[in-house]
Amino acid sequence: WRVSRTPPTILDHSHSHLTAEFHGVPAEQLRDAALLGGLLIAAASAVGFSTIGVPSVRHQSDEGISAVLLLDGGHMVMHSLPGRQTLLFDVVAPASHDFRKAVEVLSRRLTARDVTSDTRGRG
Predict the structure, then answer these.
(1) Per-residue confidence band for 11, with pLDDT thresholds at 50, 70 and 90
(2) In whole angstroms, what is the distance from residue 113 CA to residue 110 CA?
(3) How confident is the model over 46-79, as pLDDT tens digits?
(4) Phi, psi at residue 100, to the nearest 5°?
(5) Exposed, middle or buried by CB within 10 Å (0-12, 13-18, 19+), for 28?
(6) What is the DSSP annotation of 92-111?
(7) CB–CB of 25/86 below 8 Å?
(8) For every residue of 2-59, which 3-state class applies, written as one string?
């Protein structure tokens, strides 16, 4: 096992991994399966991803929503936590795309109080 203390740059890798947290999102938005599924499609389109099918959207026992959209060479996933007013967003896909555009789409449509994100190289 090799442990790296310095995060690699995105340019060193074939894929990138974006994680984002949207805090302070109204619970009614986080319970809206149609809204969240549509946002996955809009975010993928904004970034220029080729999708494989439509989002798979599931209601969770805590009234949250989990959704996944398969991409050509990756995926986009979101999990809503209405009780915590939080949306978790995850993208793994070819590094040739600007993932910030996906975060911008979600930021425009969700009324989040705070958004944090991180992108790392993978592969």
Answers:
(1) low
(2) 9
(3) 999 888 999 999 999 999 999 999 998 899 999 9
(4) -60, -30
(5) exposed
(6) EEETTS-THHHHHHHHHHS-
(7) yes
(8) CCCCCCCCHHHCCEEEEEEEEECCCHHHHCCHHHHHHHHHHHHHHHCCCECCCCEEEE
Structure tokens at 60: 């969770």
Residues listed for the chain: 123
What does the mean pLDDT of the chain come to?
89
Pair of tokens at residue 51: 């999708």
Q: Which amino acid is at 113?
A: R
Query: Which residue shows structure tokens 């599924």?
Result: 37
Q: Are 21 and 88 in contact (CB under 8 A)?
A: yes
pTM of structure:
0.85
8 — pLDDT class (breaks 50, 70, 90): very low
* Amino acid residing at 110: L
